[in-house]
Amino acid sequence: MTTSASPDLLVRGLAALCAEDGHQATENRSGNLFHWFRLAGPGDLLDAAKRLAAHGARLCTITAYDPVREHGHPRHELAYHFDCQGAMFTVTIELDEADLRVPSISGLFRNADWNEREFREMYGIEVQGLTNSKRLFLDEKLDAGIMDRVLPVSVLMNGASSRDLWERLLALRAKAEEKA
Amino acid sequence: MNRTTEKTYALPIGPVHVALEEPMYYKIELDGEIVRGVELTAGHVHRGMEALALRRNLFQNIVLTERVCSLCSNSHPYTYCMSVENLADIAVPPRAQCLRVVAEEIKRISSHLFNVGVMAHVIGYNSLFMHMMQQREIMQDVKETLYGNRMNLSANCIGGVTHDLEAEAFAFLLDGLARLEPEVARALDIYRTDRMVVARTRSVGVLSREDALALAVVGPVARGSGLATDIRRDAPYGAYVGLDVDVVVEQGGDVQSRALVRLREIQASIDLLRACVRAMPAGPTLAVLPEIPAGQAIARSEAPRGELIYYLRTDGSQTPNRLKWRVPSYMNWDALGIMLRNAKVSDIPLIVNSIDPCISCTER
Question: Do residues B142 and B134 make contact, with C-beta atoms less than 8 angstroms apart?
Fold first, then answer.
C-alpha cells in the first residue's frame, strides 16, 4: 500500500490547510510517526481527503467525540485516522454546533461508509452525500446522538424494570382471577 | 422466503442461526440457489462499551477492554495499554515487551486453530474439525498453565505485564510447540491438497487483490488476497521491533487462501515464540508510572484478525475523555458483499467463516 509520492509532500499539503500551529508530529518509543492536523474548518475536509487519497493513504477509522464533555453543552469534533506508508495521519475538524453536518468522504475512501453511518447514529452528525443512511447498530426507534448523553445506569434504570415486571404480574393475576 | 423481484427471492439468515457463532442478520438475495446480493443488519450484541470506557478510570479500562471479545482478548488490553504508554511516553522494560509478544502469539495460534477447525466443520469434514480442536487444546493448556486461564489471560497492565514467567513455564510452552508443530504441518498438507477440502474451498468466495485494496481489508483476509500488510512489520511495536516477522501471503483470494494464510501464520508464530524465549531479556517487568497527562495518542497492533487501533484522548483526569477502538473485523465485513456475489447458498456459512468475523468486536 505504498506509493512513490513522498509523505513529506503530503505533510506540507495538509499543514497548509491547518490553522496556525495546527500541525504536530510525534514519535513513540518504537520509532512510529504520528502526524496530527487540525484543519482550519470543516470545509477543508474534502481537500485534505483528496490529498490523502492521492498519496495512497488508507482510512483506518473515524472518531467522533465531545472534547469537553460538559453536561448539557455538547460539542463535537471528528478525527479522521489514516495510515500512509506506516505513519499515522490524524486529521481533526471542529464542527459548528448550529449546523452539525460534514461531507462524506466515501467517494474517495470506500471504507468510510460504515464509519460515517456509525458516528451519524451515535452522535447525531449529519453526513452529506452518504449513499446508505441505514442505521448500523442502533435500532431505528432510538434517538440519534445517544453518545452525547451522560446518563448514569442507576438513573437510566430507576427501578423501572422491576416495577414494570411487578405491574405486569399483578395484571396477569387479575386477569386469571377474572377468568376464574 | 419472500419474492423481491420477478427473478430473485430474499432469504433471511439469522440473527440467530445454527451456522452462526454470533448474531448477525443477513438478508440474502437469491436467484435460484445463486446469491445475487447481501444486506447485513448488525447491532444485536452492541453493548455501548465505548461509552462504558468513559465511566472507568485508565486502569479499570484494562479489564473492560479484555472483555470486548474472547478470541483476541489479549490484543485489546495490549493495544489499549500501548496507547496510554504512547501518551505518557512510558518506557516498557524489554522483558515485559517480550512477555507481551509471548502472550499475543499464543493467542494468535489458538484463534487461527479455532477458525480453520470450524471451517472443517462447516464443510462437513468433522473428523478434521475434531482433530484441529484437539490440537488447539495444546495451546489452551499452555494458556491455562502459564496464565491460569484458557481465554482471558490478564497478562497486560499499563507499563508492562501483570506477572513474570519462570523457566519452567517456558519449558512447558516449548514442549507444547514441539507437539503442535508437526500437527500443523500435517494440517497444512490436508488443507492444501485434500480433494474434499479443495473442492469446497478453492475458487470459492473470491476477493481480488484490487477489491481488497479498495476496501482496505486487513489481516489474513488481505494477505489471502495477495496484500503483504502486517502491522508487526509495517509499524512495529514493542518487542516486534527486533523480531523478524514473516508476513505470510497467498494469492488466490479464496476461502482456501485465507485458511492457508492462517495455518502458515501459526508456523510463523511458533518461530516467533521460540525466538522470544531464546532472547528473553532479564530485568523488571513493569515501568515506574508517571502521571498520565492530557493529550491524545494512537496505538496499533496486529491482532489475529488484522490491524487493531486504539485512539485515546485524556483531559488530565483519571477517566478518558474518549476511547475509541477499531477492530479488524470492522474493515472486513463489506468484503462479504463481493465474496458472496454469485456464490451458492450452501457456501454462505463457509465464506462468512473465512473472514473469521468477530461480531462482539465489531459492535462493541
Answer: no
* Cell matching residue B340: 458472496
Q: Pick the residue of B298, B317, B321, B362 with the most A CBs within 10 A to test the interface with A by mutation.
A: B298
Geometric angle at alpha carbon B42, from B36 and B45, rounded to 5°: 145
CA distances from B19 to A20, B124, B165, B352, B353 (A): 55, 12, 39, 10, 9
DSSP state of B234: H
Tell me the shortest Cα–Cα distance from B209 to chain A, in angstroms.
Answer: 11
The three cell numbers of residue A157 are 434504570
CA B253 from chain centre, in angstroms, equals 18
Beta-bridge partner residues of B157: B160
In chain B, the domains with their CATH numbers are: 48-328 (1.10.645.10)
Nearest of B190, B364, B171 to residue B274 by alpha carbon: B171
Q: Containing H/E element for A78? A: strand A77-84
Q: Where are the domains of chain A?
A: 7-149, 150-180
Residue A91 to residue A82: CA distance in whole angstroms: 8
Inform me whether the pLDDT recorded for A3 exceeds 50. no
For residue A28, the chain B residue with the least C-alpha distance is: B86
**Chain A, window 110-169: residues with a beta carbon less than 8 angstroms from a chain B beta carbon:** 110-111, 113-114, 135-139, 147, 152
CA distance B22 to A9: 45
Q: What is the ipTM of this complex?
A: 0.88
The full 3-state SS of A124-178, as one line of letters, equals: CCEEECCCCCCCCCCCCCCCCCHHHCCCCHHHHHCCHHHHHHHHHHHHHHHHHHH
Nearest residue to B235 (alpha-carbon basis) of A106, A86, A161, A93: A86
Q: Please give the C-alpha separations between residue B261 and each of B179, B204, B218, B244, B252, in angstroms, as whole numbers.
A: 21, 15, 13, 17, 11
Name the DSSP class of B291: P
Tens digits of residue pLDDT in B246-288? 999 999 999 999 999 999 999 999 999 999 999 999 999 999 9
Q: Mind listing the pLDDT tens digit for each residue in A106-153?
A: 999 988 988 998 898 888 888 998 888 778 777 777 766 666 665 555
CATH code, residues A7-149? 3.30.460.80
